[in-house]
């Protein structure tokens, strides 16, 4: 393989999925949110042309649901036709959101598009402009929203003399039963492969930096605060040594953020001071720019990028005197007032910073935990039980059961249920922390009452 290979790896476009709309937005901002996923895909095609790539890979969930929308299907066909004009092939597998067995394309795809079937794994050889094999690509689409087949086991490359790529839409977890369960070791066991073009996980990341390299490009455009930071795609290059190098290309027009404002025992003193802190942090985000919020993959240095704006979910946390002032207010009225003031101050410029919501997770000041537990058996025992609740599997299961049907253990990011709330490790820790704080508060209050 004397010629260098350069290609784009993308996934999880989720065309047809509108971004969450929040607050009394202007028509222009609402339109920006509605079109953001489409804008990210248009930028993806722009970058493919800018970098004169040999081909483009899209590893599943092109659409947000199995019934393709007319707008999304027509848009994709038009964008991929731009690549066809430059003779750039596009390899596609469909994922759990848009299984190939569920619904056909409404518009005919251009001739440069290669769609891998769902019935079996298939290999295609992509030639260079002289007709010499440049890369081999194996892939297989989902046939249903849940697919438990070990697709990777059927990726049988004849040798490693050509750059070999496997496309897989997977949770990359043996426990992720619905989404091609497998481990990194399983993928490494496939002979002769150089690069795994993965999809399904919405945060970009390198799973393996050594050959075979395995990577998730993430979602190009986040859809809500649960998908924060800058999304994009990956530029993958390899020379005659067939060792892939991976760089991140940012694409998101809108950047979702979660910003936390901690209060302390003495500061901020009042709500005016809290608002000032939030405004200053918002201005800092605007002055830093979106590249502060890139994933942990080296950005392609010359990749052009700008964001139209940010949508922020604020959380006020910690213990301090301000909690008493917050607790004395009507919570919804206070939140609404802060949200509107922040939107007026930060949400009208270019780029904008729009406040999605403000929530309060504050509490009254407590003595230092070490001081509480050092000479008090009750507090020390509570802390020990709190640690067990998070670390001992048996006790953890009992707690989850006691929480009721409103909560469920989320095994995979795609496991979303309309009638219950996912109980992630972070959420369980938050609930246990809050429960511990409430118990400590109540004990201290009761003891003060007895002393009185």
CATH hierarchy: architecture of the largest domain: 4-Layer Sandwich
Task: Provide the CATH superfamily of the largest domain.
Answer: Metallo-dependent phosphatases
CATH classification class of the largest domain:
Alpha Beta
- In total, the number of domains comes to 3
Share of β-strand residues: 15-25%
In the predicted model, the low-confidence regions spanning at least 5 consecutive residues are: none
Any idea of the CATH topology of the largest domain? Purple Acid Phosphatase, chain A, domain 2
Q: Your description of this structure?
A:
With 452 residues, the chain is an alpha/beta fold. It folds into 3 domains: 5-252, Purple Acid Phosphatase, chain A, domain 2, CATH 3.60.21; 253-365; 374-452, no CATH class. Helix content is 32%, strand content 22%. It contains 10 helices and 17 strands. The protein has helices spanning 27-50, 70-84, 184-188, 271-288, 322-327, 331-346, 369-374, 377-391, 393-403, 425-451, and strands at 5-10, 55-59, 90-93, 113-115, 122-127, 133-139, 163-169, 195-199, 205-208, 213-216, 232-238, 245-250, 254-263, 309-319, 352-363, 407-408, 421-422. The strands form 4 sheets. A 6-stranded mixed sheet has the order 4-3-2-1-11-12. Strand 2 (55-59), helix 2 (70-84) and strand 3 (90-93) form a beta-alpha-beta unit. Helix 1 runs parallel beside helix 2 and helix 8 (377-391) packs antiparallel against helix 10 (425-451). The protein is globular, with a radius of gyration of 25 Å. It starts with a strand and ends with a helix. The relative contact order is 0.10.
């Amino acid at each position: 393989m004397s010629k260098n290979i350069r290609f784009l790896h993308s996934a999880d476009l989720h065309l047809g999925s509108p971004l969450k709309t929040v607050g009394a937005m202007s028509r222009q901002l609402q339109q920006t949110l509605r079109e953001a996923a489409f804008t990210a895909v248009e930028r993806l095609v722009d970058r493919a042309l800018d970098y004169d790539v040999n081909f483009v890979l899209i590893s599943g969930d092109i659409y947000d649901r199995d019934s393709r929308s007319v707008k999304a299907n027509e848009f994709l066909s038009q964008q991929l036709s731009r690549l066809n004009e430059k003779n750039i092939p596009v390899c596609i597998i469909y994922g759990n959101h848009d299984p190939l067995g569920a619904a056909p394309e409404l518009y005919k795809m251009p001739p440069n598009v290669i769609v891998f079937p769902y019935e079996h794994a298939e290999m295609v050889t992509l030639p260079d402009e002289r007709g010499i094999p440049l890369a081999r690509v194996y892939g297989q689409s989902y046939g249903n929203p849940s697919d438990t087949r070990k697709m990777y086991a059927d990726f049988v490359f004849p040798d490693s003399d050509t750059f070999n790529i496997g496309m897989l839409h997977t949770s990359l977890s043996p426990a992720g039963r619905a989404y091609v369960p497998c481990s990194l070791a399983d993928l490494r066991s496939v002979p002769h492969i150089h690069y795994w073009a993965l999809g399904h996980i919405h945060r970009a990341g390198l799973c393996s930096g050594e050959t075979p390299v395995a990577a998730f490009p993430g979602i190009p455009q986040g859809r809500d605060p649960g998908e924060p930071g800058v999304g994009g795609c990956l530029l993958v290059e390899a020379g005659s040594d067939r060792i892939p190098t991976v760089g991140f290309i940012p694409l998101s027009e809108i950047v979702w953020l979660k910003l936390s404002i901690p209060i302390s025992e003495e500061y901020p003193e009042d709500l005016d001071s809290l608002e000032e802190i939030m405004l200053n942090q918002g201005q800092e985000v605007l002055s830093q720019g979106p590249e502060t919020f890139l994933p942990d993959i080296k950005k392609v240095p010359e990749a052009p990028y700008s964001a139209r704006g940010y949508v922020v979910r604020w959380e006020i946390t910690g213990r301090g005197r301000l909690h008493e002032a917050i607790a004395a207010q009507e919570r919804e009225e206070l939140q609404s007032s802060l949200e509107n003031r922040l939107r007026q101050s930060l949400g009208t410029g270019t780029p904008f910073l729009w406040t999605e919501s403000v929530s309060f997770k504050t509490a009254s000041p407590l003595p230092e935990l070490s001081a509480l537990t050092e000479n008090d058996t009750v507090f020390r025992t509570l802390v020990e039980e709190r640690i067990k609740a998070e670390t001992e599997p048996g006790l953890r299961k009992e707690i989850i059961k006691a929480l009721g049907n409103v909560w469920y253990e989320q095994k995979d990011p795609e496991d979303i249920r309309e009638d219950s709330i996912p109980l992630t490790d972070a959420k369980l820790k938050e609930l246990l922390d809050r429960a511990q704080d409430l118990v400590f508060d109540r004990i201290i209050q009761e003891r003060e009452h007895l002393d009185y």
